[in-house]
Amino acid sequence: MRTFDPRRYTGFFTITLACLFILYAPLAVVAVYSFNDSLSITRFEGVSLRWYQDVFFGLEAGKFRTAAWNSFTIAIMAATAATMIATAAAIGMVRGGNFKGKPASFALISMPIMVPEIVTAVATLIFFSAIGFSLGYVSILVAHIVFCIPFAYLPISARLQGIEATFEEAAQDLYASRWNAFRYVLAPIMAPGIMSGFLLAFIISLDDFIITNFVKGAGVETLPTAIFGAVKQGIKPDIMALSTLLLLFSILIVTLSYLIGRTGDAKNPE
Amino acid sequence: MTNQTPIAAVALRSVGKDFGDFTALKDVTFDIGDNEFFTLLGPSGCGKTTLLRMIAGFEATTAGTIHLFGDEIETLPPDKRPVNTVFQNYALFPHMNVAENIGFGLKMLGWSKADIDARVAEMIQMVQLGQFVHRKPSQMSGGQQQRVALARAMAPKPKVLLLDEPLSALDLKLRQEMRAELKSLQRETGITFIFVTHDQEEALSMSDRIAVMSAGEVQQIGTPEDVYEHPANRFVADFIGETNLLEAEAGTVDGQSVMCQFGGSSISATTTGAVAPGQKGWLSIRPERLTIGTALGEGSIPARIGQTVYLGTDTQVMAHLEGGATLGARMQNTLAGADRLTEGADIHLTVAPGAARFLVE
Ligand SMILES: Nc1ncnc2c1ncn2[C@@H]1O[C@H](COP(=O)(O)OP(=O)(O)OP(=O)(O)O)[C@@H](O)[C@H]1O
Ligand SMILES: [Mg+2]
Fold it and tell me: Smallest Cβ distance to A166: which of B84, B87, B156?
């Protein structure tokens, strides 16, 4: 029997290369021009680190620093809260048996992934103004917690599904209360899933633009909204430097999340 | 209960379990004595694990009551029951080493560090795992993991130890060694063992008493000898050991003994229940209770040798009776090349006294 091998199809390599090019060429251009020793964004005139220096010490450095601080603190808090909620949700969904409304619960949890982001953004904004919630740092944080939940939930529940319920039963059999069974047995075994869920939520929060832009109110910026604001006044190479830094950081976190999620299977995480 | 009767370690009264409209256990009633090695034996799916899980507290009863040393335990969660389990897949905590696994129950009970260390050392010595203290379960063989699971469950000195097919994952040699070891551990510690298995040999060789189960119901409870020699019904006779089961009809009845007609032959058999002449039932004869001889003796049945199968210690012989019935017999291979067992030879089968049993159901 012949096995299915997509490489045998004519044009396979061409199409693959075209896709990769379309995906990565813009990123490559940004990365390369961030080292350009010129104000021009079309002509390359020698290598320099001046735009990186500009990001940290230039005219707009203060603005970027505040935005970066907002982005990181919001991402850490939102990811932490979302991970805790997602862990509780995963335990309920995976260990709760076949309770009534389980499919509905799953749909609710994963809704933010399915719904177009602009819809969530508009809805969140309307909701906040309806209840008179003042827009700013806290409103961004709340919105981020909500849309980060499904991203944290997916790796956590995947991990939990691979863990047999007998571990918790054995813990309870050995006089552990439900909380202690979670703390000493389930949580350590789930840890890679929880960590990878946290990192995913963190990165999603860090680079969110649409929802943040709607609910941020005046005066509070995160990195993506600050970058967008700067770009509106014309693309300067310092934006490319900043974007490249952000890109590297994202790659780092995503790789970390992937590696952690992969460490060992549920049976022997060593 | 009078003062003389000791309180049962586990007392089950009309215990039942339904999963939706499927009945996994029906009207289970029996007592397990203190210090007893008690075995639940039955084919796959008969409800052994379910019963064990109900005693451990992982599954709620849908009918009946369970008492542990006289105390009703229905409302107690698993962590409040003085019962520990050796799980079928061991369920050792993968992120803890051997010592941490064994000490886990003690830690949860709030023992002091020094007490835990002493008890863990004692348990490690008991199961002879001295050199593995710092290993993780994934770095150990199945047999070693099995010992850790045993030590972990016994460390908190449970009143009752539940073992769910603990030997089924081991190879034959190790299984036989562990049987003897488990048995002597139970003797030394005096802990009540409730042991689940579907292996009748395991049950016979280790247990003080056996409960034979089928389809969620207890078929018979008795000592290994009881259930083997005096099976209560056809299922028990068939499930425990090998036997010849023949459709038979009761003839004259004289107390515990009944004359049975089967396939044109007749034989005297024992019975326990009340049997009326003419009643239909089953005749059970263990193959090793049949002897093959050449001469006609008292109570012997003429037969012709059919297929023979060499099995090492003995030879299985199919003997065809004149009436058409076939009986399997087992002859010990004490002499090399027993030439009288050639196919087609005429022989006489003698049934050992009391070896034939008439079963009504
Ligand atoms: N949670 C459950 N939901 C529905 N049915 C169940 C559940 N647990 C067990 N059963 C059913 O109850 C019956 C008894 O199961 P149990 O696990 O007690 O069998 P067992 O005697 O331990 O078998 P084995 O020797 O294969 O382990 C089986 O038919 C099983 O399908
Ligand atoms: Mg079972």
Answer: B87
